[in-house]
Each structure stands twice: as structure tokens, then as C-alpha cells.
Amino acid sequence: MNLGNLFNNYGEAVAMILFGIGFSNLLLQKNLIKKIIGLNIMDTAMYLFLALKGFIGGRKAPIVTDGVQSVEAYINPIPSGLVLTGIVVSVSVTALMLSLTIRLYRRYHTLDLDEISTRLRKEGL
Amino acid sequence: MSKKVSQEKYEKTRSYRMKQWFDGTRDPFLNTVEMKPQKAFSEDKETLERRAEDRKELRERIYDTAGNTEVRVFRKFYRVASVLFCICLVVMLLAAVSGLPAFGNPGNPVNNEVAARYIENGLQETGAVNIVTGMILDYRAFDTLGESHVLFIATCTVLILLRLDKSKKGSHGIGYEAEEDRIYEPKNDVILQTVARILVPPIVIFGIYVILGGHLGPGGGFSGGAVIGAGLILYVNAFGFAKTERFFHEKTYKRLSFCALACYALAKSYSFYTGANHIESMIPLGTPGAILSSGLILILNICVGLVVAGTMYTFYVMFRKGAY
Amino acid sequence: MQLFMYILLGFLLVCAISVSLSKNLLNSILVYMSYSLVMSIIWILLESPDLAITEAAVGAGVTSVLFFVTLKKIHAIMKAEEKEGEKKDE
Lengths: 125, 324, 90
Hints:
Chain A: It comes from Hominisplanchenecus murintestinalis. Chain A: This is Cation:proton antiporter. The structure holds 3 protein chains of 3 kinds. Chain A is mainly α. Helices cover about 70% and strands about 0% of the residues of chain A. Chain A has helices spanning about 5-10, 10-30, 30-55, 80-110, 115-125. Chain B has helices at about 5-10, 15-25, 45-60, 70-100, 115-125, 130-140, 140-160, 175-185, 190-210, 220-240, 240-245, 250-265, 270-275, 295-320. Chain C is an all-alpha fold. Chain C has one domain (about 1-80). Chain C is about 85% helix and about 0% strand. Chain C is built from 3 helices and no strands.
């Protein structure tokens, strides 16, 4: 465990800490909506990590300007493309989970997950 | 029988009664012991009710999680254990991060020959000035097709989950939801409508610009589609559903998304044929920097942008009203 | 530039912690909206303009609006049932 390297990669460290915070939200919160927010925080932390892997110091965004096409002039474009797909998938998953929450609320009139599972067991499902 | 006795005399003896009891033909207690008269078995209503109440109370006591001590202990243990688990997870991930190569170093293993190929030959092979757009819509077009399908499936699922029955009355019909919604809809809110009148045209034009300029600058189908979707949501909020349904209703969205996705899938399927037979693709690439360049990227951008805009608007409408 | 990046990353951490610890649901959704916006600015600093536009439109736009509409649906049903003041925390 190289502490010097950890301070050099401060961006990735913050991304991992955010991942941990989001995950603990998912485990520990009782309200369903806060769990969904925790999942979103986990998602964006992973996108931050991926985008940080593509950055190279001192180079510009990958849009060809003035016909310069050497590798030395642009950052790595591949992680950018991967994250673009990921953001759209994240919004789809959030919309799906929120609609499930609305249906659960209409049925049980509570947002507490423990209550809902207790009532499910009582009804014998 | 050793002694010959007459049958009547034998029937009065004790051994005959023993034999009868042993065989089971005579009950020794009947008509000899005092018993109460037997009634038919019936329960009155009170015992029935009491039994039902007992059952309900027993059930509630079993499933009563608030008062149950075992459940409470388990919940405390669960909280402590999950906090410990999260801390262990973060420590392990930080240990992994500290072993990674330095941030922003050009000699990282990530920057290998794939990125070099995309940067150096990207403009000649795809015709797109924006390397990222050229990559996701030409080199890796199947990923984008899959992602458009993910959006489509998410919309279908939200439609299934939140659709309300048009015929049912009461709290599960569409009439109830529409009434609830009308309470919250702004009735000619002056500030909102003035600002929307000023803002919505530039937003939509900006969205169209971002879509069409996807291969020339930053942006592309997803960003532009999300911007147009947000503009439509603002319009619906300011002017109500009646005005928006004049140009965007359910059939519009269904036809739009189906045609756009089919167009995307068909447009890129030429590569199955040309790749297998080692033919160069004959789509003209045009001059880089002009709008009508880069082959099919412009068409694909427009398809993806339309799907994304319709999807965002559909999510909002389904959440608010339950139907179009 | 380094200092700006440090400040933005610290802001991200503070936003994430405040989302978990706040008691009011509406407040936590607003803080999530600002978290998304700061993320978008960080992506500009990391030289990826596509991601920045997409995250600004999607994260701080559509996702937060969907959260607000969900909150409205939940309160609306509760108001019809109980007809009292709104309870926003649970």
C-alpha cells in the first residue's frame, strides 16, 4: 500500500470513497428513495473513475483542430465513449426504479422497506 | 366350558360378561353409569368470534417486528456489520488505487495502440472531426444500438408499470389521476408562461444544433436528445397537457421510436455483407468539417437524438398522468 | 487548476455525505441536483465535453425532475387519504 501513490491519484481515491458512501446508503437507509439516490451516487462515482483513466496531462479534448492528428496532442478518447453509454443506462434504471416505487406506494402506502416485507410475509406471499 | 350349564345360567355368570367385554360386543358402562345427555356439536357465535380474534392477535404478535427483541438485536447487529463491511470495502479499493499507475501519465497501459489508431486514422476512416462521436457511431456502432434498445425497453416497462385503466373509476382510474394532477397544474401562471415563451425556442434550437453538429464538435445524439426532452418538459409544465397533445401524443412517440430504431439497425447492417466479403464500404465520406460529411453518422445521430428526446418526455408524462 | 480540482472534489464528498444524513427528502434531492452539476464541471476540467453536456442535461435535468415528480405522487396520495399537513420525512 503505497501512500505516496495514493495522494498522486487523488481523483481515483475520491471516486472510491464516493462509491463506498453510495453503497452504504444502499445498505443502511430505510427510505426507498434514499436508496435509489445512493445507487445513482455509485453510478456517477464509477463514471468519474473511468473518465479519470483517460486523462493525460497537458493535452486537449479529442476534437481534431487545425489538422493536427498526432497521438501527442489529444487525450485518450475510449473511456469517454464508454461513459457516454453508461450515463444513459443510468437514467433508464433510475426511471424504472422510481416507477416501481410509485407502484409499491400505491399498494402499501409506506416507503419503509422493512414494513413492506413484513406485510408481504403476513399476507402469505 | 367344563361343566355343562344351561345357556341362560351361563349368561348370568361373570365370565360370560368378561368374554363379551373382551370381544367388544357389550359396553360395560352403558346404562350402568350415570351420564349427562349428549347434544349435537354446535358452536355459538361468541366462541367463533373469540377464536378468530385469537388467531389475528397471535398473527400480529408473531409478525410484530417492533416489539420483538430478537429482531431488534439483529437490526443493530446488521447496522454495525454493514458499516464495517463498507469500511473494509473502501479500504480494499483504496489499496487497489494506490497500486495503479500515476494519474495523467502518457505512458500508462491504457494509452495503447487502440487509442493511437482511433486518433491517427479516425478522420480519414470515419470522416468525423469529433473523434469520440466517430468512435461510438462508426467503430463501435453496435454498442450504441444496444444502448438505444436499453432506452426503448425502459420506456416499455415504465409504460406497463404506470399505465392506468381508462375505464376504471375510483382511485385507480385515469379520472382520479387527472383530477389530482389538475390541482397541481399551474393555471396560467404568468411568470412561468412568460419565461417559457422566451426560453423554450432557444432550448429546442440548441438541442437541434447539438444533434446536427455531433460530428463537428462536442455533443451528439444523446446530449442533444436530452436537451430537447428537457425543453419539452418545460413546455408541458408551463402550458398544460392540452396544448402539447396537439403535436405529441402516443401514436407520435410510438411511430417515432420504432422508425428511428429500425432505421438505425438497418443502416448499419450493410457491414455484415461488406465485412464478410472483404468489400470496402462505398458510403461517401465527404469533406471533413462540412455538415453533410462522415457517411452515416449524421443519420444515426438524428435517429438516436429523436429516440432519446421522446423517451425523456414519455417518462415525465407517464409519471405525472399515467397515460397520454 | 489543481486547487480548483481539489475544491470541487471536496464539494462532491460533502454533497454525498449530506445526502445520506439529511432528514428531509426534498433537501436531499436538491443536494443531489447540485452534486450532478459539480460532476459536470469536473468533466470539463478533465477535457471531455461530450460527457459534460450529457451529464448536465441528464443528471441535473431529467433525473432530478423525475425524483420531484415521484415525491409529488407520493404526497398527493397521502394528502387525499389523510387531508392533513404534508409529512416529508419518513
